[in-house]
Amino acid sequence: MLTIGDLIAVISLCLTCLGLGYSIGSNSDKTTKKRPPLT
Fold it and tell me: Which residues of 6-28 are buried (b: 16+ CB within 10 A; e: fewer)?
């Protein structure tokens, strides 16, 4: 079974991955919107 410490570690890891993915996704959306006029 997972201990409380393991559970907290997994949740924090998931939150950091979601945060990074969201920030990268929002940045890529902004750059893709800026790219077509430049090309």
Answer: eeeeeeeeeeeeeeeeeeeeeee
